[in-house]
Structure to design on (391 residues):
């Protein structure tokens, strides 16, 4: 993929924002288990960074997805995964379906203020018994007059404690699992919605994640996104962008682990020589950096084909699979060379070790990615459905 001067300018804007607005505070936010999301989102919105590939009519920049991918890559350098994750939920999980399939009214009421950073969104797909198996979700939305009445719950919902709206996937009929689901926008201040206490997660500590309960929550049918019963299909389309974003966001975080480990191994001496002088270690760093470049190339290839209008389900799934597995390999290898220092909670590689573990789970587990890839390769016996998950 060939980047232009405009890509470089956007990268510089994001890089400056990360260095000035996020990195100086990231340790504090990680300890607090939250960050000033509204303040950060408003600043991002003022810079146009929450609507890079959204329609100009609603305040977006109207650029192709390669610009959004470049921003995702730069956000990965902030020093912790939680803040980029919550930003990615806003840009690539809860708003794409509204932008692509929503009515003008929905776009005006929810998408435009989300792009400006004035409203915070979350995505309601996963449930305690339906994570990777999206077809198995139980939350329902039955019609009552001109309304839908929603009952059920959603689990592991990032941004939900502060969210103004949710892009919810719910069952709206008793049809087959792939035909009975509908996407809809649910304002989070309605009666019957309960957001449980913030979940105590292994990693991504600065992002707020909770379970959300719905008890006879009533919304007008005009809050439906697109046609009824098309929610599963819409969610599958959205996963292409979500998975490319996740892969891109991993790249610079892994590069930081390698660079920090090299710097530490230059300073740390054992048996009279710097650790980095051990051929095993500096060869290992070279191997890991080579793998990171391979991930970058795979992700860029998927994006290039995507902006050409191609179906990149297979490549996006490969990129996400590679990002999750390589993330574990890089952080585990680097942590080893830090020795006892690497086992400390506040160590940057220790934090990355915890954060990156989510990449192989959220947005579709590794096993789901393998199933999708196998299906598209034609290696599965019989007919199989490539179900997948969201945040």
């Amino acid at each position: 993929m060939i980047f232009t001067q405009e890509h470089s300018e956007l990268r510089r804007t994001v890089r400056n924002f990360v260095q000035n607005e996020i990195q100086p505070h990231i340790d504090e936010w990680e300890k607090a288990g939250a960050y000033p999301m509204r303040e950060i989102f408003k600043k991002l919105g003022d810079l146009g960074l929450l609507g890079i590939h959204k329609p100009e009519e609603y305040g977006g920049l109207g650029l192709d997805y390669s610009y959004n991918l470049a921003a995702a890559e730069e956000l990965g350098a902030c020093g912790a995964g939680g803040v980029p994750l919550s930003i990615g939920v806003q840009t690539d999980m809860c708003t794409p379906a509204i932008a692509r399939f929503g009515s003008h009214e929905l776009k005006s009421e929810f998408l435009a203020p989300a792009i400006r950073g004035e409203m915070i969104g979350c995505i309601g797909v996963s449930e305690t018994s339906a994570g990777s198996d999206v077809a198995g979700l139980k939350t329902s939305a039955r019609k009552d007059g001109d309304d839908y009445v929603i009952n059920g719950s959603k689990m592991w919902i990032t941004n939900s404690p502060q969210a103004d709206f949710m892009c919810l996937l719910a069952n709206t009929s008793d049809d087959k699992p792939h035909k009975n689901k509908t996407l809809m926008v649910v304002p989070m201040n309605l009666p019957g919605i309960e957001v449980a206490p913030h979940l105590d997660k292994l990693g991504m500590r600065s992002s707020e994640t909770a379970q959300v309960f719905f008890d006879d929550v009533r919304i007008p049918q005009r809050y439906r996104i697109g046609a009824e019963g098309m929610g599963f299909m819409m969610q599958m389309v959205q996963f292409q962008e979500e998975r490319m974003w996740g892969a891109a966001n991993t790249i610079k975080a892994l590069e930081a682990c390698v660079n920090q480990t090299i710097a530490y191994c230059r300073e740390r001496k054992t048996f009279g020589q710097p650790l980095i002088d051990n051929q095993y270690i500096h060869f290992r760093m070279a191997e890991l950096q080579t793998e990171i470049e391979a991930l970058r190339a795979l992700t860029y290839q998927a994006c290039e084909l995507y902006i050409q209008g191609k179906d990149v389900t297979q490549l996006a799934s490969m990129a996400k699979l590679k990002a999750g597995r390589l993330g574990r390999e890089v952080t585990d290898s680097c942590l080893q060379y830090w020795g006892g220092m690497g086992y400390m909670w506040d160590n940057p590689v220790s934090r990355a070790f915890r954060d990156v573990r989510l990449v192989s789970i959220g947005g579709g587990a590794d096993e789901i990615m393998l199933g999708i890839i196998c299906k598209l390769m034609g290696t599965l016996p019989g007919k199989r459905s490539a179900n997948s998950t969201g945040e």
The chain has three domains: 5-120, 122-227, 232-377. Residues 122-227 form a domain with the Butyryl-CoA Dehydrogenase, subunit A; domain 2 fold (CATH 2.40.110.10).
